[in-house]
């Protein structure tokens, strides 16, 4: 079948394909064709191909791409699934339906080693949950996110792949040379990328297993020299073993939405003269940002001017409730 393609010499093929993918112009229904020294990359809109690619748009024969067999095609309905590394997570109360979905996932072309079903809500101070293993036999995996790798065990630590976009938004604000304190760091999805951008990061968590994974993840991403993992309550940083972090932070990450307000006095004590605070909260839809704003202003009163630079709804959390983030700037008075 003849379809619109970008024709380019073979040595430039991968670079051009990546650029077309970034622009959303790749035609995923057809295969890339090779003919002699040229590569023909199918595109959905030849007129949108930018001139700076220095490539011709032509009609060329391209085979139809074979689509992977999906769980939905096997089941006849579209199940709710979540990917975390090579683990697929379902959320089903019906054991028979959960088992049916797990069988379909394992029979499909989805890359998967284990299928898990949530067996409890998030529980306890360490924010972990219990799981039913429906297929496979492990709860440890490597999750990849915006060029970083995170080793973790979902039965031992809290981790949400749904927050990847939000984490990336925050990380893009980090500048080289910043002193960052991640107050509830988990396995390092904020701390490690911040260090990659050139920040020096102090990363705390109560969960000793999470901190062990954090240490491993800093090493596997090449930033062990920029991340200081601390197992324990972040409040101990103030006048304690991590007292060097007191009064010096350029950026604070407070991703503990149910109770971050209880740690605002600590955040103020850790903040330097000009400090960005990423404060996560769960609030009712009628006033999602007001309680957090008031709490930050009350904690900083007399020491800092507070400017709320961004009010962001991260996701729906429950009926009429949102998980939100406030990006606030503390400026010492």
UniProtKB/TrEMBL annotation:
Q: Which residues form the SAM-dependent methyltransferase TRM5/TYW2-type domain?
A: 81-332
- Domain of life (superkingdom): Archaea
Which keywords, in A-to-Z order, does the entry hold?
Answer: Cytoplasm, Methyltransferase, S-adenosyl-L-methionine, Transferase, tRNA processing
Q: Which Pfam families match?
A: TRM5-TYW2_MTfase, Trm5_N, TYW2_N_2
Q: Lipid metabolism as a keyword? A: no
Q: Known CDD domains for this protein?
A: AdoMet_MTases
* Record InterPro entries: MeTrfase_TRM5/TYW2, SAM-dependent_MTases_sf, TRM5-TYW2-like_MTfase, TRM5/TYW2-like_N, Trm5a/b_N
Q: Which GO terms describe its molecular function?
A: methyltransferase activity
Q: Which terms does the UniProt entry file under GO BP?
A: tRNA methylation
Q: What is this protein called?
A: Class I SAM-dependent methyltransferase
Question: What organism does this protein naturally occur in?
Answer: Halorubrum yunnanense
Write the lineage as a comma-separated list.
Answer: Archaea, Methanobacteriati, Methanobacteriota, Stenosarchaea group, Halobacteria
């Amino acid at each position: 079948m003849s379809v619109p393609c970008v024709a380019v010499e073979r040595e430039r093929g991968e670079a051009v394909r990546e650029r077309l993918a970034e622009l959303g112009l790749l035609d995923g229904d057809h295969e890339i064709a090779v003919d002699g020294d040229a590569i023909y990359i199918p595109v959905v809109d030849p007129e949108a191909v930018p001139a700076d690619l220095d490539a011709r748009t032509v009609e060329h024969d391209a085979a139809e791409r074979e689509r992977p067999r999906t769980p939905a095609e096997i089941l006849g309905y579209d199940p709710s699934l979540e990917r975390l590394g090579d683990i697929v997570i379902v959320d089903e109360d019906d054991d028979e339906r959960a088992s049916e979905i797990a069988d379909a996932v394992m029979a499909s072309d989805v890359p998967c080693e284990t299928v898990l079903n949530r067996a409890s809500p998030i529980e306890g101070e360490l924010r972990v949950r219990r799981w039913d293993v429906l297929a496979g036999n492990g709860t440890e995996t490597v999750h990849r996110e915006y060029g970083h790798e995170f080793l973790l065990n979902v039965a031992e630590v809290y981790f949400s792949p749904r927050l990847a976009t939000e984490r990336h938004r925050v990380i893009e604000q980090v500048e080289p040379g910043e002193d960052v304190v991640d107050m509830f760091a988990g396995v390092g999805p904020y701390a490690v990328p911040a260090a990659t951008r050139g920040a020096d990061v102090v990363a705390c968590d109560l969960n000793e297993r999470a901190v062990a994974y954090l240490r491993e993840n800093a090493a596997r991403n090449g930033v062990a020299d920029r991340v200081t993992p601390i197992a324990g309550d972040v409040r101990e940083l103030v006048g304690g073993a991590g007292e060097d972090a007191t009064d010096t932070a350029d950026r604070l990450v407070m991703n503990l939405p149910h109770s971050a307000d209880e740690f605002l006095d600590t955040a103020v004590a850790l903040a330097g003269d000009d400090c960005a605070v990423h404060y996560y909260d769960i609030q009712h839809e009628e006033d999602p940002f007001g309680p957090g704003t008031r709490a930050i202003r009350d904690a900083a009163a007399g020491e800092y001017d507070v400017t709320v630079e961004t009010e962001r709804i991260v996701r729906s959390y429950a009926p009429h409730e949102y998980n939100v983030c406030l990006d606030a700037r503390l400026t010492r008075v």
